[in-house]
Design a protein that fits this description.
single chain, Enolase-like, domain 1, TIM Barrel, ten-stranded mixed β-sheet, 16% strand, Enolase-like_N, lyase
Length: 382
């Protein structure tokens, strides 16, 4: 069995797909994307074709190391996202070849299902109490929300109070034991992050996410000293080497590698094992599409430290199309009592709606995140 075709496709709202086809007719799908840089990542996949065509797709470790190590320059968001999509597609093929879900090829599952959470609010969150209660009524046991809008390095307590009011309203609406994750989104800098984290303690959040950017990962330990809330981060890290440095800081409780950014199934499985040795939990980042989510669940199935999975159904980014539009077996993403079941079909467990992918590929989407500025005109973190 050899790789005969490597195809790339755009798909709204902001996704990129990789299709690998073998000479005996097996097809594997991956999701390769950096949000806002779709053209760049898919062009990178195209550049890698020469390393793939004619190769045995079952030799995933060898292919992964060729893509990563054979070039002089390595790592970073573009290269690792391209590798991620290819890697997912290779695992999809391998599972289909051996007629089994991917997780069975990685030692089998250590759980029967994985808890999931749902997003509420938007970039500038509002009506969050109502939204959280709707998610609870729909069966979810946890939600995540953006904490704040623009926040300068030193900012006003008025903005802090707005965050506290929103979180208080959610806690009142959903009760004491419902999970509330609060994403600082890297918008907050250390001086204000310490204040905000400490004041959020009374609402017993499930975790706070990206209280500062991983560019300042050495500061997580100081924020941890300021509060007793689990700290999550990692969506903007791209390899086991990035996560090694993060874990060595001792300031993080939950890592959030993205299966479409951090080297795919092959690399994230290794990252998760590293985190387990530090007694750190795994909650893969996935505000993306159906293939990325399928890859996440395959890894979740095999990792003892996985405790919850992000998913993007209903997220504010998803315009024109959602996760379920791109797959035919929509029942695979039926959540029951806040949990996703493990897929039973071969490979990644999803049947991609190739007709819709081809239709969407006629137009390359141009999704970009908004550019925010502070009142004084300076650029704000989004």
């Amino acid at each position: 069995m050899k790789i005969a075709e490597v195809n790339v496709y755009w798909g709204r709202p902001r996704w990129g797909f990789v299709e690998i086809v073998t000479d005996d007719g097996l097809t594997g799908w991956g999701e390769a994307i950096i949000e806002g840089k779709a053209n760049t990542v898919l062009a990178c996949v195209e550049e890698m074709k020469e390393y793939l065509l004619g190769k045995d797709p079952r030799r995933i470790e060898d292919i992964w190391n060729t893509l990563y190590r054979a070039g002089f320059y390595r790592g970073g968001p573009i290269l690792m996202s391209a590798i991620s999509g290819i890697d997912q597609a290779l695992w999809d093929i391998k599972g289909k070849y051996y007629h089994t879900p991917v997780y069975e090829l990685m030692g089998g599952s250590c759980r029967d299902k994985i808890r999931v959470y749902s997003w509420i609010g938007g970039d500038r969150p509002s009506d969050v109490a109502r939204d959280a209660l709707e998610k609870k009524k729909a069966g979810f046991t946890a939600i995540k929300m953006n904490a704040t809008e623009e926040m300068q390095i030193i900012d006003s307590y008025e903005k802090i109070d707005r965050v506290l009011e929103r979180v208080a309203s959610i806690r009142e609406a959903v009760g004491k034991y419902f999970g509330i994750a609060i994403d600082f989104h890297g918008r907050v800098h250390k001086p204000m992050a310490k204040i905000l984290a400490k004041k959020l303690e009374e609402f017993q959040p499930m975790f706070i996410e990206e209280p500062v950017l991983c560019e300042h990962m050495e500061e997580f330990i100081e924020i941890r000293r300021a509060c007793d809330i689990p700290i999550a981060t990692g969506e903007r890290l791209f390899s086991k080497y990035d996560f090694k440095r993060l874990l060595q800081t001792g300031g993080v409780d939950i890592i959030q590698p993205d299966l479409s950014h951090a080297g795919g199934i092959t690399e994230v499985k290794k990252i998760a094992a590293m985190a387990e040795a530090y007694d750190v939990a795994l909650a893969p980042h996935c505000p993306l599409g159906p293939v990325a989510l399928a890859a996440c669940i395959q890894v979740d199935a095999t990792c003892y430290n996985a405790f919850i999975q992000e998913q993007s159904m209903g997220i504010h980014y998803n315009e024109h199309h959602g996760v379920l539009d791109y797959i035919k077996n929509k029942e695979v993403y039926t959540f029951t009592d806040g949990f996703a079941s493990l897929p039973e079909k071969d490979g990644l467990g999803i049947e991609v709606n190739r007709e819709l992918v081809l239709e969407e590929n006629r137009m390359s989407h141009r999704w970009k995140n908004p550019v925010w500025r502070h009142e004084d005109g300076s650029i704000a973190e989004w």
